[in-house]
Write a structure and sequence with these properties.
Blueprint (H helix, E strand, L loop, with lengths): L3 H10 L14 E3 L6 H9 L4 E5 L5 H5 L6 E6 L4 H9 L5 E4 L13 E7 L5 H7 E12 L5 H7 L12 H10 L2 E9 L2 E4 L2 H10 L13 H14 L2 E4 L2 E8 L3
Parallel strand pairs: 2-3, 2-5, 3-4, 5-6
Antiparallel strand pairs: 1-8, 6-10, 7-10, 8-9
Helix pairs in contact: 1-8
Length: 251
């Protein structure tokens, strides 16, 4: 294994855009979930005519689900991702719209019959507003205990807990807005980091995991984790994921 300094330097120099974790390659391995969001999304698309993909990132996943209905809208709130998504999705006829953090969805009432949402904002009142009666939501979310063991290992503040960021809380919020829950599941699969560089890259890519993360500030803890990996083997954290499929009932 390369020296600590070289691993960290490589991770800091690596580029990250859209929602592409390709740089990690074999250096971080996630265990499979019992469900496949991609498969569920493709199945739902077969019955849809007007689609909304929330927080599309750089459009990577949505593009992989093509062919798409002609009336497909994608929203994105992270400004650097907007032109990436527009460029990637233009040839597929997708209308990419900016979505400010505190703004309602830039979509008309009763406008769509399918909402796809993989790791995006899950706002039940807005979903109820834009979905037609009988419309379907397919969402996979990152729960609030995601990689909590990584925070603990680095001596970072714990992940903020929120009821709406767990399956039960999200299900209850959707029920209150008139949704019928078709499927709900929650799992904590392993996420294995093979070296400290993978950890640094990962925390750069998702800064909300440890908001004050900095390699200098966390150097002692990172070096300790690096030594632990060298002597004991890969560091195992745990994803926190939940899946919900729901149908908008008549108002």
């Amino acid at each position: 294994m390369k020296p600590y300094e070289e691993l960290v330097e490589e991770a800091l120099a690596a580029s990250f855009s859209g929602w592409d974790f390709g740089w990690l390659g074999y250096r971080a391995v996630s265990a499979d979930l019992s469900w496949s969001y991609d498969r569920l999304a493709r199945s739902a698309l077969e019955q849809a005519t007007r689609v909304l993909d929330i927080d599309t990132g750089g459009g990577e996943l949505l593009a992989s689900l093509a062919p798409l209905p002609e009336a497909t809208i994608a929203t994105e709130g992270y400004e650097p991702n907007v032109p990436l998504a527009q460029c990637r999705l233009a040839a597929l006829g997708v209308d990419v719209r900016r979505h400010g953090v505190l703004d309602p969805l830039p979509v008309e009432d009763d406008a769509v019959d399918l909402v796809l949402n993989r790791h995006g904002r899950l706002e039940a009142p807005e979903l109820a507003r834009v979905l037609r009666t009988g419309g379907v939501l397919v969402t996979q979310q990152v729960g609030s205990r995601n990689h909590a063991d990584l925070n603990e290992a680095l001596g970072a503040p714990p992940v903020m807990l929120a009821a709406a960021n767990h399956c039960e809380g999200a299900v209850n919020a959707l029920h209150e807005q008139g949704f019928e829950i078709l499927e709900a599941a929650e799992e904590w699969p392993e996420f294995v980091f093979l070296d400290v560089g993978a950890i640094v890259f990962h925390l750069r890519a998702i800064p909300w995991q440890i908001p004050d993360f900095d390699v200098d500030k966390y150097e002692p803890a990172l070096r300790a984790l690096d030594q632990r990996i060298r002597t004991e083997g890969p560091f195992v954290a745990h994803n926190h994921r939940y899946l919900i499929r729901a149908r908008r009932q008549a108002r």
